[in-house]
């Protein structure tokens, strides 16, 4: 029993020393860990202080675009007007009939009467066909009967007060139309009677070409 007590007394200082060393080691380890944590907190940036914004994406306004300043013009511009090659076309008196240039050649004083294409004017020949074998509706029923010895079929005339003074063709003739006499055509007998008998200067035209 005495030896056992001595042994216990001998071990107690050793155990106390071991416990003291273990405690010192634990304390040193704790200090080391704490120092490391403090060091990291001091050196590492806080999350709230970090710049989390991204660089802005380039906008369309920053893109350099090239736009056409004007449309492509045609290679050649069409002339505004075309000059006539014939000398007669520069004459202010030149007019057109059926798309062809005509000019006045002479004026004849004539007695002008009027007729219609019905029986009251044409009798049994009131078939709607003129002596030149053309319909009375030719040229919009604006035509005249003449003495074809003086003014052959196809002659072009302008008569003051008839057809708005436009040029009209000679496409008919009649037994009473001799010499310097004309008969202008109207669609009805009543309108023809309103014309009466007139002495007028009749202009004769010819084609320039």
Proper CATH architecture of the largest domain: Beta Barrel
How many E-type strands? 7
Number of domains: 2
CATH topology of the largest domain: Barwin-like endoglucanases
Distance between the termini: 164 Å
List keywords for this structure.
209 residues, alpha+beta, Barwin-like endoglucanases, six-stranded mixed barrel, 22% strand, disordered N terminus
Q: Topology, pairings included?
A:
Elements: H1 2-43, E1 95-97, E2 100-115, H2 119-122, E3 144-146, E4 156-158, E5 168-172, E6 181-185, H3 189-195, E7 198-207
Parallel strand pairs: 2-6, 3-5
Antiparallel strand pairs: 1-2, 2-7, 3-6, 4-5, 4-7
Could you explain the architecture of this structure?
By secondary structure, the chain is of the alpha+beta class. The chain has two domains: 2-49; 90-207, Barwin-like endoglucanases (Beta Barrel). It is built from three helices and seven strands. It has helices spanning 2-43, 119-122, 189-195, and strands spanning 95-97, 100-115, 144-146, 156-158, 168-172, 181-185, 198-207. It has a six-stranded mixed barrel. A hairpin with a 2-residue loop joins strand 1 (95-97) and strand 2. The longest helix has 42 residues, at 2-43. The model is unreliable at 1-5 and 35-88 (pLDDT under 50).
């Amino acid at each position: 029993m005495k030896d056992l007590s001595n042994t216990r007394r001998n071990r107690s200082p050793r155990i106390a020393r071991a416990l003291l060393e273990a405690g010192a080691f634990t304390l040193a380890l704790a200090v080391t860990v704490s120092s490391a944590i403090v060091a990291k907190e001091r050196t590492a940036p806080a999350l709230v202080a970090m710049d989390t914004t991204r660089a802005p994406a380039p906008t369309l306004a920053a893109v350099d675009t090239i736009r056409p300043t004007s449309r492509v013009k045609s290679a050649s511009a069409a002339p505004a007007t075309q000059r006539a090659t014939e000398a007669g076309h520069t004459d202010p008196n030149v007019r057109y009939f059926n798309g062809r240039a005509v000019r006045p050649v002479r004026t004849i004083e004539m007695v002008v009467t009027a007729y219609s294409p019905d029986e009251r004017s044409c009798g049994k020949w009131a078939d709607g066909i003129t002596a030149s074998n053309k319909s009375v509706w030719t040229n919009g029923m604006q035509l005249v009967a003449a003495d074809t010895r003086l003014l052959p079929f196809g002659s072009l005339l302008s008569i003051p007060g008839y057809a708005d003074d436009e040029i009209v063709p000679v496409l008919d003739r009649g037994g009473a139309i001799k010499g310097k006499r004309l008969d202008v055509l109207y669609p009805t007998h009543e309108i023809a009677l309103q014309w009466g008998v007139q002495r007028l200067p009749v202009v004769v035209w010819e084609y320039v070409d």
